[in-house]
Amino acid sequence: MSRPPARPGPEQPAGPEPSGRAPATGTADTPPGPDEHRVLTSLLGAWALAACSAAETAAVETHLTDCAPCAEEALRLRDAVGLLHSEDSLDLDPMLRSRVLEGCLDRRPARIPMPAWAAPYDAETARLDALLRDMAEEEWRAPVQLRWFDGERQAARETTVAGVLGHLLAVDGLVATGIGLPDPLPSGALPTGPGAGPQARTEVYWALDDAGHRAQAARERWREQSHALIRDVSFLAAEDAGPGGEHAAPDRRVDYGGFTLPLRDAFLDRAFECWLHAGDVAQAVDYPYEPPGPAHLNQLVDLAARQLPGAIAARRRSGLAPPVRGLATAGAPGRTLHLEIEGSGGGDWYIPLDSPGTRASPERTVAHIALDDLEFCQLAAGHVPPLDAAAGQDGDPQAIQDVLYATASLSRL
């Protein structure tokens, strides 16, 4: 970097204006003195960054032709500068951690491998933890709007970043207790009965004295619980490994208070919610947050698509959707909707419309919906009103409406 000319001392008359010539560096016959060498060496970093003036650049490059140690240092610094990409985003690829783990496991397989269906939860909890790690105290109190669809309309609840983490801790506790881990909620405060699901547990946690005051302690408890979940479910899956070595889901279901999910789907459900709420937190603190990588995103989309037949049937039982016309025979092919999800996490799903017990049949497709993968996930999270989803639609309008509303109904606090 260029330096200003020295200010003349009280007894030194001001000299002429600088001529712009490079500082003297000596020649082959008169090598530079120690002071000149020190000055030129100090400019090597700026030279490597192309931050020197023209005169300084000429002086440094002249010096490099005569000084082997400086020439070696200059090459090292220039190579280091080549690794800097200041124009790129500093945020890591969401799948970087998974690729590094896969590379390590290819070289030395884990004695107890993690099942593939638990990998999205592992990745999303690690990403959220990285976001929380350096969060300032005031950011933990930043307001966060949690949104979902209650079956008929959108609902919202305001909390804080600390409250979001408490919500995740409390609901992850359902999966924890399902595999024999301790419940993060005190035993005397646990809700009971059919309504003892995610929302009731969250309200209990928020009512605790430390719900929003000891944020770092809550983060440590949540991260410790997520690590324990990954560890213990890997042991359970290994015990249930099939004869071909595939790690199947243990034959367990997680009780959500009113409905249950297979263990593998419960892990995908928790990964989905962790990602969506991490996005809520990132938005509250004005930080960019990327979606999951394609392989994990596809698993989350698949989970929502597989839940749609049950969600459609539940809406009919509640009177929120019209009944099926005609008789639906279990196991027989029935009316079908083709759900096309575009994007890196997408694919094609055929949704039985008449009953979860009927069989989807491409030949009996009565409607087609095309949605972007992220838009579909936002709809399943209740962040987008069903009729506002940017969907390509063709066919039976009632079937399309049933599926869009059922997708939004998958959401909850």
TrEMBL record:
It comes from Streptomyces qinglanensis. Residues 1-16 have a biased composition (Pro residues). The keyword Zinc applies. Residues 41-71 form the Putative zinc-finger domain. This is Putative zinc-finger. The keyword Zinc-finger applies. Residues 1-37 are annotated as: Disordered. Keywords: Metal-binding, Transcription, Transcription regulation, Zinc, Zinc-finger. It holds the Pfam family zf-HC2. The lineage of its organism: Bacteria, Bacillati, Actinomycetota, Actinomycetes, Kitasatosporales. GO terms for molecular function: zinc ion binding.
